[in-house]
Amino acid sequence: MMQGPDRLATVIRNPHGGMRIRVTPRKKPSAWKKWPIIRGVLAFASSMVTGCSILMYSAEVLEDFEKEGPVEKKQEKDKMTLFLEKHFGEKGALNVMLYASVVFAIAFTVGIFIILPTVIINFARTLTENDLLLNLMEGILRIVLFVGYVSVIAKMEEIRRVFQYHGAEHKCINCIEHGMELNLENVKKSSKQHKRCGTSFLFFVMIVSVIVCFFITVDSKILRIVLRLALLPVIAGISYEIIKLAGNSSHPLVELLSKPGLAMQNLTTKEPEDDMIEVAIKAVEEVFDWKTYLKENFKEK
After folding, report:
1. What is the rounded CA–CA span in Å between residue 142 and residue 127?
2. DSSP string for 15-55
């Protein structure tokens, strides 16, 4: 998936050799795009909606591929799927399952990375009553859990393929931004790391949460959890502003702050295969006139 100034493209590799392409218009930027912090919260919510929409589209496309020819052995539908299809129809059942998956993913993320560290650190009160030290320990534990989780899922075959496509996306953007023609050869030698990556955003969320929550000292376990959940939008908004700055600045301090997120991308981006790069290139070409961009920004080259 690639987003351009006014269009969004979704390109899916057909198991039988071709590509399925969908291009949809993007809404013009609203007034909230100018509001610091708030724009980060709304951008995150918007990306969740967009991601869910693309998931539903890709699932529909998979069904079309299966009609064209055997993709893989289809599994028999379980009782829950049959129940949902009976009450919501085949497409409605798919929507219910996808949105339920998103809700579960959010609940899982909040439970593992927000609530669990707070609960665990409460047991450390037997060792120290220093609230600032406990907050610091909680923040470090949250980062360790996040890095450990990503390290584990990166070993899964399907997730690895996702991370390869993620790498293809970065390499295409880096290729253009470094003034090179967008082709297979140039993309292959471009970096798979990018400062505006969502992985860097999530890592900044972890760091900012450590800083913000460090100064919040309350005795109630429930109140500690409620405050951390309530501050999530603020933390996300601040992180968005940092990642926006990092993507538009080459200041040494900004470069230094970006290094942890770039290092984290070694886990979430993998070197893509040639056919994956071709998909990414096609997605870029559907939403962005890279030839005009190169002429305007790299005249000497």
Report:
1. 19
2. TTS-EEEEEEEPPPP-GGGGSTTHHHHHHHHHHHHHHHHHH
Instruction: Give ∠ CA 242-10-44 in degrees, rounded to 5.
Output: 30
Q: What pTM was estimated for this model as a whole?
A: 0.83
Closest by CA to 270, choosing from 154, 145, 184, is 154
Determine the pLDDT at residue 68: 63
Q: Which of 243, 23, 163 is nearest to 171 (CA)?
A: 163
Phi, psi of 218 (to 5 degrees): -135, 150
Which residue reads 């060792």 in tokens? 127
Q: Which pair of structure tokens corresponds to residue 215? A: 């100064």
The answer to whether 262 touches 174, Cβ cutoff 8 Å, is no
9 forms bridges with which residues in the sheet?
Answer: 2, 23
Cβ-Cβ contacts under 8 Å for 97 (sequence gap 6 or more): 81, 84
Q: What is the pLDDT of residues 199-222, one digit of tens each?
A: 888 888 888 988 988 888 887 888
Segments in the chain below pLDDT 70: 29, 66-78, 300-301
Which residues, 6 or more positions from 267, have their beta carbon under 8 angstroms from its beta carbon? 147, 150, 151, 154, 163, 199
Residue 83 DSSP label: H
Contact 112, 145 (CB under 8 A): yes
Question: What confidence score (pLDDT) does residue 272 get?
Answer: 96
